[in-house]
């Protein structure tokens, strides 16, 4: 199949790369714009994995209906049910595409918070799942580019400035014809025209620097106090420009996920950017302790609930040796040595970065005393009672106090521990889309030739996103957008004079 004109994909995270690869595989011309100097976006940092149901790697009774139910429950009733259907029904195919066609290892499966079954896939090797997936897809794109160099143009350091549009006629709305972008290396502003534009520009969880233009300041000014796990490029460019240029409908923009665990680097506690402490750390058996050394939540409930509990009981209320600001929040992740062996690459990376220590209950108490001065009155025996209580819940298979139902191994001898804090992580809101990822305007009309895939879109996750569904959304809706574009291209070819 050949295309009439190029599709312009803006953003090179997993959503943009999936769309690009799917189009290239059908000989469709693509121009890929990336704001930074490298491909991958925030997707390359994803550490917990990608959801899929049912797959050959699962060994449980999981079903699409169970995944759908968990997604709707997590979304607090705000999720677009049609989009949830698309996500969950296509999750198996997404895993098969990545593992069978692209040979990406996703053989290890974990159960994350808010999930009723283990369904989050990652590799058994050293690479984090997001990076492994990005690496696999970019390798395939490079292969296709080498075979047909004219098929794709990859423009890095290229920042979207506006959408090029034309009025279709009275009552018909606007039609997108291309983009204007700025080459940030030279400062030159350029225009490129195409038959379709796919926005894959990500969320806005780092959009806090210029307040009069900040989506966070506009929709959730109360969250500006939190650090972020997102790269500095995550400033909501697609949402802002689509609303301004084509009156795109922005929905659920106040629904921003605050992830409960971003690592605090003891050597730089004031840094506004944090390494994410992947949910897999709690999935393998990790627990959270308050600054006073107590458990306070079922660590495997949904992210929003864990975060709420952190905010309730983990506030820093006094000056401390770490220099954590009074009014900030800190909890302590604790992972047994046996459980750490389930995610050796995560543990090794975090330890290398100085974010995890290994020691005994006595060493953990020393950390807690640095966080909270009143812990001078806490003894090793007091702290050991907290750990023993959790170990007893593991032995019984029942956590009567907090309701946790999935456990790791007992915490004994030496174990790992590190400081964490809530971080801005994911924007559930964005550009309203239909089941084919076509953008919708404020009149409820499809905006011709404009698509939104991945975190730039809104409606799927509602009030809270399940761990592992961000990478999945990027694959599923990247494929949906590409199929819609290829279908249009085929129709246009058939309508040409002389077509047989």
TrEMBL record:
Enzyme class: oxidoreductase
Occurrences of domain FAD-dependent oxidoreductase 2 FAD-binding (ranges): 8-471
Alphabetical UniProt keywords: FAD, Flavoprotein, Oxidoreductase
Enzyme Commission number(s) of this protein: 1.3.1.6
InterPro entries (UniProt xref): FAD-dep_OxRdtase_2_FAD-bd, FAD-oxidoreductase_2, FAD/NAD-bd_sf, Flavocytochrome_c, Succ_DH/fumarate_Rdtase_cat_sf
SUPFAM superfamilies cross-referenced by the UniProt entry: FAD/NAD(P)-binding domain (SSF51905), Succinate dehydrogenase/fumarate reductase flavoprotein, catalytic domain (SSF56425)
Highest taxon of source: Eukaryota
Catalytic activity: succinate + NAD(+) = fumarate + NADH + H(+)
Family: Belongs to the FAD-dependent oxidoreductase 2 family. FRD/SDH subfamily.
Textual note on the cofactor: Binds 1 FAD per monomer.
Protein name in UniProt: Fumarate reductase
Cofactor(s) needed for function: FAD
Free-text function comment from the UniProt entry: Irreversibly catalyzes the reduction of fumarate to succinate.
């Amino acid at each position: 199949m050949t295309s009439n004109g190029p599709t312009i994909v803006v953003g090179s995270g997993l959503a943009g790369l999936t769309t690009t690869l799917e189009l290239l595989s059908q000989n469709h011309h693509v121009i890929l714009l990336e704001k930074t100097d490298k491909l991958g976006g925030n997707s390359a940092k994803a550490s917990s994995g990608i959801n899929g149901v049912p797959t050959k790697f699962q060994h449980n009774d999981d079903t699409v209906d169970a995944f759908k139910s968990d997604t709707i429950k997590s979304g607090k009733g705000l999720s677009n049910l049609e989009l949830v259907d698309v996500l969950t029904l296509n999750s198996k195919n997404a895993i098969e595409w990545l593992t069978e066609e692209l040979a990406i290892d996703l053989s290890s499966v974990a159960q994350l918070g808010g999930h009723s079954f283990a369904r989050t896939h990652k590799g058994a090797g050293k690479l984090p799942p997001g990076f492994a997936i990005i690496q696999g897809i970019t390798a395939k794109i490079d292969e296709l580019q080498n075979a047909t160099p004219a098929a794709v143009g990859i423009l890095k350091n290229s920042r979207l400035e506006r959408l090029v549009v034309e009025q279709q006629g009275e009552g018909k709305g606007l039609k997108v014809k291309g983009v204007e972008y700025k080459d940030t290396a030279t400062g030159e502003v350029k225009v490129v025209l195409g038959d379709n534009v796919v926005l894959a520009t990500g969320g806005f969880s780092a959009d806090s620097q210029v307040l009069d233009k900040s989506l966070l300041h506009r929709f959730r000014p109360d969250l500006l106090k939190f650090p972020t796990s997102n790269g500095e490029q995550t400033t909501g460019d697609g949402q802002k420009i689509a609303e301004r240029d084509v009156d795109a409908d922005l929905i659920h923009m106040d629904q921003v996920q605050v992830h409960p665990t971003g690592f605090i680097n003891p050597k730089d506690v004031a840094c506004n950017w944090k390494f994410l402490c992947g949910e897999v750390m709690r999935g393998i058996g990790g627990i959270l302790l308050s600054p006073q050394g107590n458990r306070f939540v079922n660590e495997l409930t949904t992210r929003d609930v864990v975060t709420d509990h952190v905010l309730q009981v983990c506030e820093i209320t006094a000056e401390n040796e770490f220099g954590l600001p009074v009014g900030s929040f800190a909890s302590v992740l604790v992972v047994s040595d046996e459980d750490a062996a389930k995610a050796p690459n995560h543990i090794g990376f975090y330890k290398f970065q100085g974010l995890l220590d290994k020691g005994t209950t006595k060493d953990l108490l020393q950390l807690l005393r640095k966080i909270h001065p009143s812990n001078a009155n806490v003894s090793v025996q007091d702290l050991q009672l907290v750990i023993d209580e959790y170990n007893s819940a593991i032995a019984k298979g029942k956590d009567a106090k907090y309701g946790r139902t999935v456990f790791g191994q007992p915490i004994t001898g030496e174990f790992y521990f590190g400081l964490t804090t809530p971080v801005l992580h994911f924007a559930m809101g964005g550009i309203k889309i239909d089941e084919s990822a076509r953008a919708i305007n404020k009149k409820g009309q499809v905006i011709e030739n404009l698509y939104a895939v991945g975190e730039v879109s809104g409606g799927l996750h509602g009030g809270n996103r399940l761990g592992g569904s961000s990478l999945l959304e990027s694959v599923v809706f990247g494929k949906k957008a590409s199929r819609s574009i290829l279908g249009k291209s085929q129709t246009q070819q058939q309508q040409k004079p002389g077509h047989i």
